[in-house]
UniProtKB/TrEMBL annotation:
<feature type="domain" description="EAL">
    <location>
        <begin position="24"/>
        <end position="274"/>
    </location>
</feature>
<protein>
    <submittedName>
        <fullName>EAL domain-containing protein</fullName>
    </submittedName>
</protein>
Length: 281
C-alpha cells in the first residue's frame, strides 16, 4: 500500500518536473525569436529628488510583449536569459535603446539601466557602453548602471576594474536592492558606487515592522558618510514618503511617484512634473 503511495507521489513530481522543463525550453526558444521579432520594449519609471520634488531620472525596465502571453515580466524571463547567455544580446539592446530614447527627452534627466553579471563579464562591455553613448549622443553623466550585490560575488577584482573604467568614463554606478545580499557593507567600500538603492522590502516595512525605520535611517546616514546618494525603492504611500523626507533620503522611486510607463508617456509626464506636482506633500 505504502509502495503505491510512493510511486504515485514520484510520478506526480516527475510530471511536474517534465512540464516545467518543457515550459522552460519553450521560453528559451521564444526568447531567441523575441529579439529578431522586436518584441522587447522599455518602460521607464521616474525617480524624484526629495528636496526639490523634481523628477531627476528614470529607470529603464525591460518588458516583453509576447504575441500569445501578453506583457511578460522580467522576473520571469531574465533568469532564463542569463542561464542561456541570451542576456548579452538582450542587454546590449537595452543599453542601446535606453541611451537613444533618453537622448531625445525634453529634460536632460538621468537614465538608469540594469546590467547583469553575465554582461559585465563580457570583455568588451565598457567599449560597448562607450559605443552606445557615442551613437546616441547621450552624455556619459546622464547614464547610470544598476547592479546587484550578486554581481560582485564572482571575480570581484575584475568587476571592480570594469566598474572603475565605467566611472572614469563619467558613468555612475548604483547598487540595486541594497540590503538583500550578503556583502553589502564590504562591497560599498570596494567598488566605485555613487548611489545606494534601498531595497523595496525595507521601505515596505517602514512603520510596520520593528527595526525597519532605524535601518532605513542608518543606510541614509551611511550613504551621506560615504558620499553616495541614497534612493528608496518601492515607495507606495504618503506615509513612507514623509518618513523618507524626514530621514533626508535623497531620492524616491515607487508607484506613488509613478509606475513604469511606455516611452510615449514620458514627454507628458515630464511636462506635468514641471508644474503641478501631484505627490507634493
Ligand atoms: P529592479 O531593478 O530592482 O527594479 C525595480 C522593480 O520594482 C521593477 O520591477 C519595478 O516595476 C518594481 N517597482 C517599482 N516601484 C514599485 C512599487 O512602488 N511597488 C512595487 N510593488 N513594485 C515596484 P520589474 O520591472 O518587474 O523588474 C524586476 C527586476 O527585473 C528588476 O528589479 C531588475 O532586477 C530586472 N530587470 C528589469 N529590466 C532589466 C534589464 O533591462 N536588464 C536586466 N539585467 N535586468 C532587468
Ligand atoms: Mg534596478
Ligand atoms: Mg531594485
Ligand atoms: Mg529589485
Amino acid at each position: 500500500k505504502s509502495k503505491d503511495d510512493g510511486r504515485g507521489t514520484w510520478s506526480f513530481f516527475s510530471d511536474e518536473l517534465n512540464r516545467k522543463l518543457v515550459q522552460r525550453r519553450e521560453l528559451e526558444q521564444d526568447l531567441r525569436s523575441a529579439l529578431a521579432e522586436a518584441e522587447f520594449e522599455l518602460h521607464y519609471q521616474p525617480l524624484m529628488e526629495t528636496t526639490s520634488q523634481k523628477v531627476c531620472g528614470f529607470e529603464a525596465l525591460l518588458r516583453w510583449r509576447h504575441p500569445a502571453r501578453g506583457l511578460v515580466s522580467p522576473a520571469e524571463f531574465i533568469p532564463v536569459a542569463e542561464d542561456t547567455g541570451l542576456i548579452r544580446e538582450i542587454g546590449a539592446w537595452v543599453m542601446r535603446t535606453a541611451c537613444q530614447e533618453a537622448a531625445g527627452w525634453s529634460v536632460p534627466v538621468r537614465i538608469a539601466v540594469n546590467v547583469s553579471a553575465v554582461q559585465l563579464r563580457e570583455p568588451d562591455f565598457c567599449q560597448s557602453v562607450q559605443d552606445c553613448l557615442r551613437a546616441s549622443g547621450l552624455p556619459a553623466g546622464r547614464l547610470e548602471v544598476e547592479i546587484t550585490e550578486s554581481v560582485l560575488m564572482s571575480n570581484p577584482e575584475r568587476t571592480a576594474d570594469v566598474l572603475r573604467t565605467l566611472r572614469d568614463m563619467g558613468v555612475s554606478i548604483a547598487m540595486d536592492d541594497f540590503g538583500t545580499g550578503h556583502s553589502s557593507l564590504a562591497s560599498l567600500h570596494a567598488f566605485p558606487f555613487g548611489k545606494i538603492k534601498i531595497d523595496r522590502s525595507f521601505v515596505n516595512d517602514l512603520g510596520e515592522r520593528r527595526g525597519a525605520d532605524q535601518i532605513v535611517r542608518a543606510v541614509v546616514m551611511l550613504g551621506k558618510t560615504l558620499n553616495m546618494r541614497v534612493t528608496a525603492e518601492g515607495v507606495e504611500t504618503r506615509r513612507q514618503l514623509s518618513f523618507l523626507k524626514d530621514a533626508a533620503c535623497d531620492e524616491i522611486q515607487g508607484f506613488l511617484i509613478g509606475r513604469p510607463m511606455p516611452r510615449s508617456q514620458i514627454a507628458e509626464f515630464l511636462a506635468k512634473a514641471q508644474s503641478a506636482l501631484p505627490w507634493a506633500a
